[in-house]
């Protein structure tokens, strides 16, 4: 048993009563020995994470996780711990990046290290075993999948497609706004309809009427999904639960998503029936065309990424990633415009100068509308609809900001912190589109700490679609209407966010705010 003494540190060895050890070479003593060695090994090999607040074992930083403004709370931690902070959600460590410098270091310079996604149970279930883009690991297959989708999206936004869809969906929206005849109203559902129609138009050439039960049904499904998923799922913190006991919320989230998938599946099947390669109508057709080309070229690798499950998952990604981000951005934009008449007037003056009163703004007006675009970017900065983006995961042991980040660690980009960093933005809480303009009024280079679409290998695939779409939607609304708050109503900027990492969006409260529409003469 002397050997036991030798493998223990001196102080522990001395503390042990040798006679006790020798007299009880029993399973108990063997177990104790194993425990001591195990704890020592864990202490020696324990990965060193960046600094952060003390966390309870197993439970972690529970208060932080349940903070409705978790992005702001994480940003505040930087004041004490620096821009790279470790927090603990449940038993797992999560590293939060609160500055553009550390985000660029991780996501751009060490992009391959940080390109994974945490394999949480909800992600695996909703993506039908990792067959989507949003929640899948960064594998060679995902790389191929991303390439196909971005080529299809690029093809789609080139030419007249986007303009046609915008005209179809915004026409109805403008009529609905007109019908309010200058009375105060809540614009949420109208904005939701417009953006729902744009996504349905992009994906399936579908445009719904405001009172269409299908639109109401799927909007309701999506709203419930955002609210429930947004609250976070206990199974994602303690994955074993997904196997042994699933919460009501988990079951509800899965069943809501299945309903959305069912809708997408039906549309895809209909597209397969009347697919005509000489007439590519929409994004679904672009994906079917990519599959047809791969079949013709007998490209097995590409075909393996274009099964029916991949296609419906890609379309559902487009729905979930595109619909909520874009509708919340426009909702915020209207609130800011209602409360910032000076900015609104400047946008309208630009529109009158460039577009005039005889026609509506078009996608090809965008290069001539720098102030409108700067206003949209400023709203995206100040509202940060996806404040914590999508969680990443390190695929190998890596480092950022001088700290080690072990393989398998969840890493979060705090977009809100980047967009409110006082080192980069003077008076960050003030709406000021000029930040995005040169002194001659032209659009400036992207400010360093502006990253709504993220960066690196998982950069948003919809950036090039979302920007023209959102600029023209804002232009169309402000070209036709003055947005105002009713007399005596103060803008309420408190976000309606549920606090889940990466899937919540900021939204003002529908009941608190009404916007008066005045038809321009
Ligand atoms: C205001 C509009 C939008 C914002 C702010 C936004 C933001 C983001 C962010 C922050 C991510 C996570 C990136 C990361 O993992 O670091 C993301 C991912 C993604 N977005 Fe967007 N997005 C917008 C619109 C769209 C649109 C219109 C589409 C599709 C047409 C789209 C498709 C995607 C997809 C497919 C991903 C997953 C990329 C991957 O995991 O590899 N997004 N987006």
From TrEMBL:
Its cofactor is heme. The chain crosses the membrane at residues 20-44. It comes from the Eukaryota. The keyword Heme applies. It is a peripheral membrane protein. Belongs to the cytochrome P450 family. This is Steroid 21-hydroxylase. It comes from Mizuhopecten yessoensis (Japanese scallop). The lineage of its organism: Eukaryota, Metazoa, Spiralia, Lophotrochozoa, Mollusca.
């Amino acid at each position: 048993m002397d050997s036991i003494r030798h493998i223990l540190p001196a102080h522990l060895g001395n503390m042990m009563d040798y006679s006790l050890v020798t007299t009880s070479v029993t399973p108990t003593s063997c177990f104790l020995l194993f425990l001591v060695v195990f704890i020592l090994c864990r202490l020696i090999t324990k990965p060193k994470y960046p600094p952060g607040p003390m966390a309870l074992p197993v439970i972690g930083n529970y208060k932080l996780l349940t903070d409705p403004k978790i992005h702001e709370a994480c940003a505040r931690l930087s004041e004490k711990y620096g821009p790279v902070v470790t927090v603990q959600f449940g038993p797992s460590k999560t590293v939060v990046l609160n500055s553009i410098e550390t985000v660029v270091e991780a996501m751009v310079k060490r992009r391959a290290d940080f390109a994974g996604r945490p394999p949480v149970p909800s992600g695996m279930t909703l993506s039908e075993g990792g067959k989507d883009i949003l929640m899948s690991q960064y594998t060679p297959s995902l790389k191929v999948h991303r390439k196909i989708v971005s080529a299809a999206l690029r093809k789609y936004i080139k030419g007249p497609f986007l303009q046609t869809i915008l005209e179809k969906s915004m026409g109805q929206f403008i009529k609905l706004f007109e019908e309010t005849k200058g009375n105060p109203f809540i614009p949420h559902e109208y904005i939701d309809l417009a953006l729902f129609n744009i996504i349905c138009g992009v994906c399936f050439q579908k445009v719904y009427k405001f009172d269409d039960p299908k639109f109401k049904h799927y909007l309701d499904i999506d709203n419930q999904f955002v609210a429930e998923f947004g609250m976070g799922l206990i199974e994602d913190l303690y994955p074993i639960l997904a196997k042994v006991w699933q919460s009501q919320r988990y079951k509800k989230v899965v069943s809501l998503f299945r309903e959305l998938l069912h809708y997408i599946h039906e549309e895809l099947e209909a597209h397969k029936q009347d697919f005509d390669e000489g007439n590519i109508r929409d994004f679904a057709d672009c994906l079917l065309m990519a599959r047809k080309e791969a079949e013709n070229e007998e490209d097995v690798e590409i075909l393996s990424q274009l099964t029916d499950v991949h296609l419906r998952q890609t379309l559902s990604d487009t729905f979930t990633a595109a619909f909520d981000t874009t509708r919340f951005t426009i909702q915020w934009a209207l609130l800011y415009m209602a409360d910032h008449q000076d900015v609104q007037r400047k946008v309208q003056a630009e529109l009158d100068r460039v577009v005039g009163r005889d026609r509506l703004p078009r996608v090809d007006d965008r290069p001539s509308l720098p102030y409108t675009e700067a206003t949209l970017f400023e709203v995206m900065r100040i509202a940060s609809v996806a404040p914590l983006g999508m969680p990443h995961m390190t695929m190998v042991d890596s480092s950022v900001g001088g700290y080690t980040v072990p393989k398998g660690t969840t890493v979060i980009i705090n977009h809100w912190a980047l967009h409110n960093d006082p080192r980069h933005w003077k008076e960050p809480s003030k709406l000021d589109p000029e930040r995005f303009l040169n002194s001659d009024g032209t659009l400036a280079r992207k400010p360093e700490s502006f990253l709504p679409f993220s960066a690196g290998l998982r950069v948003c695939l919809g950036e090039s679609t979302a920007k023209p779409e959102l600029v023209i939607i804002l232009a169309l609304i402000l070209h036709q209407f003055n947005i105002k708050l009713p007399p005596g109503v103060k803008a309420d900027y408190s976000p309606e966010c549920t606090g889940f990492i990466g899937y919540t969006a900021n939204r003002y409260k529908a009941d608190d705010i009404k916007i008066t529409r005045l038809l321009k003469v």
